[in-house]
C-alpha cells in the first residue's frame, strides 16, 4: 500500500473519530482530536458552526462543542460526498453532514422529536510530530433545501417551496 493511500485512510479515520466523539458527547475524546496551541501555529485552531461567527483558539473551540453537546440530547451524523486530499502534513476533508438531532425524551421515555439538516463541512487536519492527524479547523455551512408545505397544493409552481435550514 502506498504512503499516500495510507495517509488518506488515516485522515478518514481521524475525520470519522471526530464525528463519533460528538455523537457520543465525549469531550475528552473530542479534545484529543484537536491540535494543541503549540501545534497549531500562530493562527491557532478555529471552528465555524452553522450560523455562528468564527471561533479561534483551542479553549473557545472546545467550549463551543461543550455547549452544543450540553444542549443536544441526540445527534447522529451520516457523512456523504466525502473527499480527502493530503499534501505533506496537511489534509483537507470536505463532506456533507446529514444530521439527525433530537430534543429531550418524551415523558413516557420514548425518543423526543427528531430534526434533520444538511451541512457542508470542511475539516483541515495537520499531522503532528508523533504522526497523528488532528483537527486544525472545522467550517460548517448550512445547506438551504426546498420543502413543500403541502404536497397537495397544485397551484404552486414546482421549485417554489419554502426555504428551510
UniProtKB/TrEMBL annotation:
Domain of life of the source: Bacteria
Residue span of region Disordered: 138-165
Domain SnoaL-like: 11-143
Pfam families: SnoaL_3
Alphabetical list of InterPro entries matching this protein: NTF2-like_dom_sf, SnoaL-like
Acidic residues: bias regions: 147-165
Listed PANTHER family: NUCLEAR TRANSPORT FACTOR 2 (NTF2) FAMILY PROTEIN
Name of this protein: Nuclear transport factor 2 family protein
Organism this protein belongs to: Streptomyces iconiensis
Lineage per the UniProt record: Bacteria, Bacillati, Actinomycetota, Actinomycetes, Kitasatosporales
Amino acid at each position: 500500500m502506498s504512503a499516500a493511500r495510507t495517509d488518506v485512510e488515516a485522515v478518514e479515520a481521524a475525520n470519522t473519530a471526530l464525528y463519533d466523539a460528538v455523537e457520543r458527547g465525549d469531550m475528552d475524546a473530542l479534545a484529543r482530536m484537536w491540535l494543541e496551541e503549540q501545534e497549531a501555529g500562530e493562527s491557532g485552531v478555529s471552528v465555524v458552526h452553522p450560523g455562528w461567527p468564527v471561533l479561534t483558539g483551542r479553549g473557545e473551540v472546545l467550549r463551543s462543542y461543550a455547549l452544543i453537546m450540553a444542549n443536544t440530547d441526540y445527534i447522529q451524523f451520516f457523512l456523504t460526498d466525502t473527499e480527502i486530499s493530503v499534501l505533506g502534513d496537511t489534509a483537507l476533508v470536505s463532506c456533507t453532514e446529514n444530521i439527525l438531532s433530537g430534543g429531550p425524551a418524551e415523558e413516557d421515555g420514548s425518543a423526543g422529536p427528531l430534526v434533520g439538516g444538511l451541512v457542508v463541512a470542511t475539516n483541515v487536519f495537520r499531522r503532528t510530530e508523533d504522526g497523528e492527524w488532528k483537527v486544525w479547523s472545522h467550517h460548517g455551512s448550512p445547506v438551504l433545501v426546498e420543502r413543500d408545505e403541502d404536497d397537495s397544493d397544485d397551484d404552486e409552481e414546482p421549485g417554489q417551496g419554502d426555504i428551510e435550514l
